[in-house]
Amino acid sequence: MSCLAIVDPLGSPCGPLQKAVNTAQGLFQRWTDLLQDPSISTREELDWTTNELRNNLRSIEWDLEDLDETINILFTLRSNPRKFSLDPAELRQRKAFISETRQCVKDMKDRMTSPSVQALTEKKNRQALLGEGTKHGWNLETEKYKALDQELENANSQFLDGQVGQQQLIMEQQDEQLELVSGSIGVLKNMSQRIGSELDEQAVMLDDFSHELDTAQSRMDNVLKKLAKVSHMTSGEYEPFCYVLASRRSCQEICSNTGCGSSL
């Protein structure tokens, strides 16, 4: 695929990057024309175009690295596609777009540093120093220069707007996740408070039950002591008294049978 045929198949979020690539391709074409035909430009315009092209290519490489890293992260999240709404085919198309764009940037950089281009650049510089360059069509080229500058400014502005929009979307998603987490924390807090109240109530009930057990135990001890006392009196202290009563009754029966006048 040629460098000029690179098109993002899915649009946003690669849209700003696509515009940056188109701008770089326009600069590269203009740079090539200026280099091949010194009569249509000045040295200042060639230097400006060269610097702008290098800066744009460097910026595109940084954006490609960020986008490639993001897509690699998304590939690791494919285990849960329903949660993150990820389409493997879309991710593969993004990777292909990144590879093609990176190759396009490499081709332009290689062209700018090739020996033939270096020779043309040196020739252009010598012509400028010797006064061989021409100012033919200077006014027309100045207008083109201004138009190209405006186009670059618009492209940069659109790219920045796209980046701000993406950051805003990410922040909104993070806010939604924080709200969900906050709601879950509130539910857990209410549950912990209820559990704490129930534990306090059960602790009070256990204290009351323990007090009742202590009271019942004390009463049981008193009853057992009384029973032990009664049992001791029955088995020990009342036995001589019963013996005396039994002996006296036997004597009375003997006297009544023998006619004894004495009585006990």
Automatic annotation (TrEMBL):
<dbReference type="GO" id="GO:0006886">
    <property type="term" value="P:intracellular protein transport"/>
</dbReference>
<dbReference type="GO" id="GO:0005484">
    <property type="term" value="F:SNAP receptor activity"/>
</dbReference>
<feature type="domain" description="T-SNARE coiled-coil homology">
    <location>
        <begin position="168"/>
        <end position="230"/>
    </location>
</feature>
<dbReference type="Pfam" id="PF09177">
    <property type="entry name" value="STX6_10_61_N"/>
</dbReference>
<keyword id="KW-0333">Golgi apparatus</keyword>
<dbReference type="GO" id="GO:0031982">
    <property type="term" value="C:vesicle"/>
</dbReference>
<dbReference type="InterPro" id="IPR006012">
    <property type="entry name" value="Syntaxin/epimorphin_CS"/>
</dbReference>
<dbReference type="InterPro" id="IPR010989">
    <property type="entry name" value="SNARE"/>
</dbReference>
<keyword id="KW-0472">Membrane</keyword>
<keyword id="KW-1133">Transmembrane helix</keyword>
<dbReference type="GO" id="GO:0000139">
    <property type="term" value="C:Golgi membrane"/>
</dbReference>
<dbReference type="GO" id="GO:0005802">
    <property type="term" value="C:trans-Golgi network"/>
</dbReference>
<dbReference type="InterPro" id="IPR015260">
    <property type="entry name" value="Syntaxin-6/10/61_N"/>
</dbReference>
<protein>
    <submittedName>
        <fullName>Syntaxin 6</fullName>
    </submittedName>
</protein>
<dbReference type="GO" id="GO:0048193">
    <property type="term" value="P:Golgi vesicle transport"/>
</dbReference>
<comment type="similarity">
    <text>Belongs to the syntaxin family.</text>
</comment>
<keyword id="KW-0812">Transmembrane</keyword>
<keyword id="KW-0175">Coiled coil</keyword>
<keyword id="KW-0813">Transport</keyword>
<keyword id="KW-0653">Protein transport</keyword>
<dbReference type="InterPro" id="IPR000727">
    <property type="entry name" value="T_SNARE_dom"/>
</dbReference>
